[in-house]
């Protein structure tokens, strides 16, 4: 909304500002008195107000301007206001800036500085409105998800996770196999628990088995159980995971590590619901929802013969792709606070470090970093050094290599004459992204 309201009793000032702003494609309306200005605010939307501080001849106290400022704030609390005057005491202007005025410029003003300030404030207002709309839409979607489904204790704030869970919620009720893909440590088991919690079998057991953590010769016994004496050391009969999960959900993690012999038997039980314990000829029946997960490329394994194609399609009726933590950075701080559980507090520099880190180990790495820091800080403040992250740089800034440094942001702003949109283009960022970095680095355009 590139529309500005100018409230000044001097006709020359209003005309000069209107002309100056029009040269930069900014529409301006001029009011000659506080009453006229407040009336205009009621008739049309404005993105910014430039107001004088004195309106009565021979008055320099600024009291009229302060009254106008407070009246505008009462009507439009989020509307940025620039104070413009040649006479007001500096302490009065500073007090209003502390009360929420966007800036204070003295007459005669510097055209370049005024235009840059106006453009930045208009862009900031537009960015804030867009961000607020996105946040509200996200809140509404999350609230709708929570009304429809049991979130199973999941902590998230990113659109990526919201999209994934909305899809998972849609398929949870259908008793079909689901393949959850994603990198190690990203939270695939948590997603599986969400699917189980919202399935028809939610009252049944949720049994998890990491297929990559067991020797190949024990996989069959783990899945299907064994009778006494079935193998060396089997002193008594043992219930397998399929039996234990009967009436519930069986989660098979690292399914790509299942040997071919185990794949054949798994395919049979998925197709028929029947299996035999190791060392037994008795056929048993089970009713189990199977969820599987992998960080491997199963399609490539099918092509090389390392994974059965028929089993792949049996497991992969629906695929849920869990992105790495680096692609859902909005989840980083909520997860970190969740893992910290109030035992200490993060310094602002530690928050910057958490957001800038690449997280190759995903949520598991984040949890370990927070647990380590919580132990070392002994209930105090957590600093970047206590997190033990590797991407520290010589200037003390913790950042991703793709992240513009504070110096780079300052230089881009200087080259752009203080106009945020131009600096954002130079840095290859959106305006909203650059505003987030300005806030993070404590930079005022």
UniProtKB/TrEMBL annotation:
Residues 154-375 form the Sigma-54 factor interaction domain. InterPro entries: AAA+_ATPase, AAA_lid_NorR, CheY-like_superfamily, Homeodomain-like_sf, HTH_Fis, P-loop_NTPase, Sig_transdc_resp-reg_receiver, Sigma_54_int. The modification 4-aspartylphosphate is found at residue 52. The keyword Protease does not apply. GO terms for molecular function: DNA binding. Pfam families: AAA_lid_14, HTH_8, Response_reg, Sigma54_activat. Keywords: ATP-binding, DNA-binding, Nucleotide-binding, Phosphoprotein, Transcription, Transcription regulation. Residues 3-122 form the Response regulatory domain. This is DNA-binding NtrC family response regulator. It comes from Pelomonas aquatica. The lineage of its organism: Bacteria, Pseudomonadati, Pseudomonadota, Betaproteobacteria, Burkholderiales.
């Amino acid at each position: 909304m590139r529309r500005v309201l100018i409230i000044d009793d001097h006709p020359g000032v209003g005309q000069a500002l209107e002309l100056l702003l029009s040269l930069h494609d900014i529409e301006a309306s001029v009011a000659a008195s506080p009453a006229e200005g407040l009336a205009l605010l009621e008739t049309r939307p404005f993105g910014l107000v430039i107001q004088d501080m004195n309106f009565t001849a021979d008055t320099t106290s600024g009291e009229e301007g302060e009254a106008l400022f407070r009246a505008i704030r009462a009507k439009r609390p989020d509307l940025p206001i620039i104070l413009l005057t040649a006479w007001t005491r500096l302490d009065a202007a500073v007090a209003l800036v502390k009360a929420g005025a966007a800036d204070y410029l003295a007459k005669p003003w510097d055209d370049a500085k005024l235009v840059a300030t106006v453009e930045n404030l208009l862009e900031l207002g537009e960015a804030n409105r867009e961000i607020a709309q996105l946040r509200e839409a996200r809140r509404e979607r999350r609230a709708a998800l929570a009304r429809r489904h049991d979130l199973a204790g999941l902590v998230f704030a990113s659109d990526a996770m919201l999209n994934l869970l909305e899809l998972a919620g849609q398929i949870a009720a259908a008793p079909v196999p689901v393949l959850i893909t994603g990198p190690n440590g990203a939270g695939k088991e948590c997603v599986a628990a969400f699917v189980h919690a919202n399935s028809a079998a939610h009252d049944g057991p949720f049994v998890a088995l990491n297929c990559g953590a067991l020797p190949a010769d024990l996989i069959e016994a783990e899945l299907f159980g064994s009778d006494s004496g079935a193998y060396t050391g089997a002193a008594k009969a043992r219930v397998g995971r399929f039996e234990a999960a009967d009436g519930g959900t069986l989660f098979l993690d690292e399914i790509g590590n299942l040997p071919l012999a185990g794949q054949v038997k798994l395919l049979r039980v998925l197709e028929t619901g029947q299996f035999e314990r190791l060392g037994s000829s008795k056929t048993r029946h089970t009713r189990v929802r199977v969820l599987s997960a992998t960080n491997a490329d199963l399609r490539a394994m099918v092509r090389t013969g390392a994974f059965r194609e028929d089993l792949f399609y049996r497991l992969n009726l629906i695929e849920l792709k869990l992105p790495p933590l680096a692609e859902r950075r909005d989840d980083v701080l909520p997860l970190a606070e969740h893992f910290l559980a109030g035992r200490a507090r993060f310094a602002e520099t530690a928050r910057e470090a958490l957001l800038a880190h690449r997280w190759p180990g995903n949520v598991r790495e984040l949890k370990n970093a927070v647990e380590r820091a919580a132990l070392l800080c002994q209930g105090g403040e957590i600093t970047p050094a206590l997190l033990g992250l590797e991407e520290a740089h010589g200037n003390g800034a913790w950042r991703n290599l793709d992240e513009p440094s504070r110096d780079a942001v300052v230089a881009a702003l200087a080259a752009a004459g203080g106009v945020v949109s131009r600096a954002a283009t130079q840095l290859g960022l959106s305006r909203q992204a650059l505003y987030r970095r300005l806030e993070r680095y404590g930079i005022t355009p």
